[in-house]
């Protein structure tokens, strides 16, 4: 009800805000962030009326905010009889888990004009049907419902996916995406254009690597040179045809085998080069592989006008319904490559059909969520959806305009950040243990080898938490036992060891130079990789195994701790208890105890023991340096850490330390026997 009423107010405000933005080239278009800018807003403005109009618009916006605040205050407590709409009828969505589908056109065919008489963009409220006993698939299910209802009502050829906590920072961003989507050479094989994520409200030093600079400015830029970046769930412009499971229109160059296949099997025969269609109709009709759709975009007639009956060249109406669902209007819309709806269509009929396609049972026994639309089966549905498109041969584009296209908010306190990383890592583990795992899925498709390796890296990274945790503990155990982590090796072997590290550092430096990422951003990324690896990634591995193999869905809840801090980054110091904090705290305590034990031993043993100690101390301090942002977050602004975290961490650290000393794996059995005074038969 709050969303519905707020959108109604937004539609009214847009009639004044949109013409003001267009007239004066306002950036960003989000009024909250435009009016909050601490810049000279008169720069580049030449119209004398601008100051007066801006002052009036700011007053309009403040009045709009007051009306929204009144709606929020009203929504804090639901009346016993439930919400009622302005006309007195009960609100259909009083039970959020059991309500019919709802659609309200706020700005559409009639009444969608601004104060200057120009047509406004469509604004339509959609709430899909919810009933007990149905699986609604959360965000992925909501996106698929929006694909269908938008195809029926407007059928735009392209879709933009932006999270609710993001806003347009660059109104020209969509034009940049269209340059790729409508390109004669690349347009018909481009499934989506991905923009990097940029964030507001993050502390200057980005303590918990919220900006993900290394991922967005190095990894995705690198993938852009292969088959395109992975889909990251927001800030993405889609080709609607790719979401329907159609094949891209590929050239002969695209159909050439990759360099490995070419070197083993040779190139294609020249006689086949004249055939531009890579699949003939007989093969397309017989195809049943899930990685490649059973129909081809090239075999569909272009420029379909109206909703004719002759739209199924390769499949019967029955098989179309089995794939897309039982909606003739929607099925017809899927064949209109350029989008749009016939001018003779009755709006009332379309609304009735739109309600039908967002019903609970519409997706039953169809391929929604399996082969078309957003793919189900993981909390990170974005990775799966992009992977399926790339497996069919589509390419994606990474677009980085100088002015960021979108900006959003990110969790800036430690607990929220770790839970966000946990969700991502859990999704990767779910994909790893599913049939869509890139290690074994889609080899009959057109996924390039390096792109496959990138997807494999995207889903297996949580597993690195296990060896990472072991390496973070080893320095402390070495200090406790007096043994060294690195064995003695020959000069020849040490040369290879040094060359390996030099090559790794050289690669990192070249990546930084190429992408323009600063050393500080790189170091923050390295630090949070260790923090996340010893906490969220580790929990995700075990939680994913329990969920997929045993069917046990374990949720790590977050309990907020009240904060009385004020200031711009007050939330940075808010502490929220979560079990994710225990493993890294344990690692910290073990290493600190190890340092104290090592230094104490060196003091008691004389100066000759200080030389070996420095090597051991280096690794322990290196671990603590990586966990330093975690330590700062744990202590907070006033050095307050919950007792439960300290108790559990000290308990675990003590158990591991005593166990390690008792096992003493660096000492051979014979040495142990001699130390204990035991003598064998050959004494």
TrEMBL record:
Source taxon at top rank: Eukaryota
GO molecular function: cellulose synthase (UDP-forming) activity; zinc ion binding
Requisite cofactors: Zn(2+); Mn(2+)
Record's GO cellular component terms: plasma membrane
Positions contributing to Mn(2+) binding: 139, 163
Ranges that cross the membrane: 459-480, 492-515, 527-546, 580-603, 609-631, 643-663
SUPFAM superfamilies referenced in this protein's UniProt entry, alphabetically: Nucleotide-diphospho-sugar transferases (SSF53448)
Record's subcellular location: Cell membrane
EC number from the UniProt entry: 2.4.1.12
Keyword Manganese: yes
Pathway assignment: Glycan metabolism; plant cellulose biosynthesis
Top enzyme category: transferase
Keyword line: Cell membrane, Cell wall biogenesis/degradation, Cellulose biosynthesis, Glycosyltransferase, Manganese, Membrane, Metal-binding, Transferase, Transmembrane, Transmembrane helix, Zinc, Zinc-finger
Any one of the GO BP annotations: cell wall organization
Coiled coil: none
Reactions listed under catalytic activity: [(1->4)-beta-D-glucosyl](n) + UDP-alpha-D-glucose = [(1->4)-beta-D-glucosyl](n+1) + UDP + H(+)
One Pfam family here: Cellulose_synt
Residues the entry annotates as binding UDP-alpha-D-glucose: 138
Membrane topology: Multi-pass membrane protein
Similarity-based family: Belongs to the glycosyltransferase 2 family. Plant cellulose synthase subfamily.
Protein name according to UniProt: cellulose synthase (UDP-forming)
Species for this entry: Hibiscus syriacus
């Amino acid at each position: 009800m709050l969303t519905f009423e707020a959108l109604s107010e937004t539609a009214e405000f847009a009639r004044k805000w949109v013409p003001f933005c267009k007239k004066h080239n306002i950036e960003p278009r989000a009024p909250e962030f435009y009016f909050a800018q601490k810049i000279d807003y008169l720069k580049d403005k030449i119209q004398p009326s601008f100051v007066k109009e801006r002052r009036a618009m700011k007053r309009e916006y403040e009045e709009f905010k007051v009306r929204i605040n009144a709606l929020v205050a009203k929504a804090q407590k639901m009346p016993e009889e439930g919400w009622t709409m302005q006309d007195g009828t009960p609100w259909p969505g009083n039970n959020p888990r059991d309500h019919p589908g709802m659609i309200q056109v706020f700005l559409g065919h009639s009444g969608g004009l601004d104060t200057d008489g120009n047509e406004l963009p469509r604004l339509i409220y959609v709430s899909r049907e919810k009933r007990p006993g149905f699986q609604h698939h959360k965000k992925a299910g909501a996106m698929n419902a929006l694909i269908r209802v938008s195809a029926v009502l407007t059928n735009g050829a392209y879709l933009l996916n932006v999270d609710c906590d993001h806003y347009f920072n660059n109104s020209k961003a969509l034009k940049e995406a269209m340059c790729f989507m409508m390109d004669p050479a690349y347009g018909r094989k481009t499934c989506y254009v991905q923009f990097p994520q940029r964030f507001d409200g993050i502390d200057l030093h980005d303590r918990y690597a919220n900006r993900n600079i290394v991922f967005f400015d190095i990894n995705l830029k690198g993938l852009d040179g292969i088959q395109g970046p992975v889909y990251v769930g927001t800030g993405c412009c889609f080709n609607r045809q790719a979401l329907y499971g159609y094949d891209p229109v590929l050239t002969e160059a695209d159909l050439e085998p990759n360099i490995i296949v070419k070197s083993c099997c040779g190139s294609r025969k020249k006689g086949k080069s004249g055939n531009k269609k890579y699949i003939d109709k007989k093969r397309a009709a017989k195809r049943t592989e899930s990685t490649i759709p059973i129909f081809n975009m090239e075999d569909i007639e272009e420029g379909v006008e109206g909703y004719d009956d002759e739209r199924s060249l390769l499949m019967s109406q029955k098989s179309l319904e089995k794939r897309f669902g039982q909606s003739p209007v929607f099925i017809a819309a899927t064949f209109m490559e350029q989008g749009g709806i016939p001018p003779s269509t009755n709006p009332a009929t379309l609304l009735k059909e739109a309600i039908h396609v967002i019903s609970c049972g519409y997706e039953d026994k169809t391929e929604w969520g399996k082969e078309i639309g957003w793919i189900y089966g993981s909390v990170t549905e974005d990775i799966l959806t992009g992977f399926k498109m790339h497996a069919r041969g589509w390419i994606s584009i990474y677009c980085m305009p100088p002015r960021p296209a979108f900006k959003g908010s990110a969790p800036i306190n430690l607990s929220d950040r770790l839970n966000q990383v946990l969700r991502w890592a859990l999704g990767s583990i779910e994909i790893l243990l599913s049939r869509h795992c890139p290690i074994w899925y889609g080899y009959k498709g057109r996924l390039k080898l390096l792109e496959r390796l990138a997807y494999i890296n995207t889903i297996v990274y949580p597993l690195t938490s296990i060896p990472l945790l072991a390496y973070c503990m080893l320095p402390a155990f070495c200090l406790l036992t007096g043994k060294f982590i690195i064995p003695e090796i020959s000069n020849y072997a040490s040369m290879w060891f040094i060359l390996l590290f030099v090559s790794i550092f050289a690669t990192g430096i070249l990546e930084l130079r190429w992408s323009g990422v600063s050393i500080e951003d790189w170091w923050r990324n390295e630090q949070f990789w260790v923090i996340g690896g010893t906490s969220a990634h580790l929990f995700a591995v075990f939680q994913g195994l329990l969920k997929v193999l045993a069917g046990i869905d374990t949720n790590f809840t977050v309990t907020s701790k009240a904060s009385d801090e004020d200031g711009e980054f007050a939330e940075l110091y808010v502490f929220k208890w979560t079990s994710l904090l225990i493993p890294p705290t344990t690692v910290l305590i073990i290493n600190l105890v190890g340092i104290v034990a090592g230094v104490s031993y060196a003091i008691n043993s004389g100066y000759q023991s200080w030389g070996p100690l420095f090597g051991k101390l280096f690794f322990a301090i290196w671990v603590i340096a990586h966990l330093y942002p975690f330590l700062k977050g744990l202590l907070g602004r006033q050095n307050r850490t919950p007792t439960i975290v300290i108790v559990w961490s000290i308990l675990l650290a003590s158990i591991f330390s005593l166990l390690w000393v008792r096992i003493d794996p660096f000492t051979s059995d014979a040495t142990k026997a001699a130390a204990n005074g035991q003598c064998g038969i050959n004494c």
